[in-house]
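Researcher: Batch entry, complex prediction.
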Amino acid sequence: MTLTIEGITQGYGSNIVLKDISFEVKKGQIVSVLGPNGSGKSTLIRTVCGMLKPRAGTICVEDKDLSSMDRKDFSKMIGYVPQKYVPSDYMTVFDAVLIGRAPYMSWSYSENDMIAAEEAMEKVGIFELAERYINDLSGGQMQKVVLARALAQDPQFYVLDEPTSALDLKNQMVAMNTMRDMVTDGKAGALVALHDLNLALHFSDCVVMLKDGNVYAKGDPYDVINEKSIRDVYGVESEIMEGREGRFVHVLEKINGSQ
Amino acid sequence: MMEKEPGGRLNAIYSASKTKKMGFIVVAMFLILISIVVSVSIGAVDIPLSDTIKVFLHSLLPSFFDGPDKEWYSDIIINSRMSRTILCVVCGFSLAIAGAVMQNILRNPLVSPFTLGLSSAASFGAAVAILFGAGITGSIMILGHEFFVKNLFIAGLAILWSLISVSIVIVLSRRRNISRSTVILIGVIIGYLFQAGIAAIKYFSDDDALREITLWLMGGMWNATWGVVLLVLPVVIVCDVLIESRAAKVNILSAGDDVAHSLGINVTSLRTTLLILSTVISAICIAFTGIIGFIGLVAPHVVRMIIGNDSRYLFIASGLLGSLILVVSDIVSRMIMRPEELPVGIIMYLIGGAFFIWLVSGNRKEVTM
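Model: Structure tokens for the complex:
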């Protein structure tokens, strides 16, 4: 199963933010969207999730146009994970995770809903917190609640907006490994907006680099993320180095154009 | 760790929390029953508890139970005090559930029918009716009950202006997809505009009208009759059913508008529908009682602290606690200066004020939604 983004153009008023963006996400893949602030990453994520209608172009799964799908079917297809979770007062962790079952429930939860939510909480390691109120949790734990909710939703494709930006190093790894888990064996696919080039190098199967609303480059992370692309897109000098687990980016002090 | 069945451990936790929520609801219902009995027993003539119970049993099962020895006890309870007490139950329920709905759809713990400009709009409507309806006299029969035309005129204009105000809020905030902060901001501003209108009407009113407007703004149960109960109750029941059937969707809103959208919720339409329903349900009540503040704020707060924020249970439980608070406050308002009675609105402001001072003092955690 493939999520195909084809010729997407998007904007706010007269300001065009995305121009003719095309790429695809296959099941079993993590596809990362990279680019500096204002390059259109979030707009792209919101467009794929149906929160914004594209000005031109289509988003399809197989040959089915997502914009023609009804809401419930859509929510079984695409699961959105926000950057930050602003929790409500007196909401327990299990209530928050069960919300992910919305596409399958009407007023009360079924046995399947319980099974899915329990599995999701165990997978991200928050079952022990089930009865706690969310706003008593740390930022890392909250992000795990969000991931568990997305897992409980059990969509075909996960769409994540900078899921690691508020997390410490260890929790970044937990979040990325959870995402890896989500897609193994072709259970689902993931499209993720990322700031951290090293996480992108380490975890992505494919990257799409945006610059000023255009696709600057796309393809294998080792091909796309290099000293030239980082200079062109982010405006910084860097060095790509070889570590024990693969390549990583070392950003240099001098800024492009001011050397 | 003992349960091996998939989903079993979560099911156990979920069932336990559900039992707690249902327990709260049952206890609240029981306390309401007690407070109703107390409420109809006291007044200018105190009726002994045993006689009150006899009146209830006799009217429910006349062939099995005898009425009280003094037959006029039945008349006092059924025809005068009972309608007032039932109106308290209905209004308390409505105002509290409206508060809970508004707070959860806008994810703001300080929102209530009053912060969204609704009470100001209703007051404005009532003030207009009082000012221009000074000459209206007489009564008409509706559903076999007598109504004073002037009271209906006041109630009608109060409801009309409440609906106008919520329509303005919805139309103005539609441009921004009924986002939470826009709705609240516009509601507050509309409230101030209507306050200006009320002040102007007060300025042009004569002494009689001024006193009537002031009393209306304090809120009280003076106009309670079975006729009013029969007018209000069907509207309240229909709105409650419609609200409760959407409660699971309101839970999903707590994950944020974007996530709710991706979980299949039409956020704009859900928020609009529930704003209208909660407006109707509170407007129809305050139209006959005048402004009774704070129930919509206090009741959901307390319930949330005890049983959590699952809207499916929160709405009903808040409604029940609202009923209990209003019935008890009404008892207090009749007891405190016997045989005179104090407007129940004043008692509510005292209770509400004390509650929020308690809430913000001490080291309870920050209130966020």
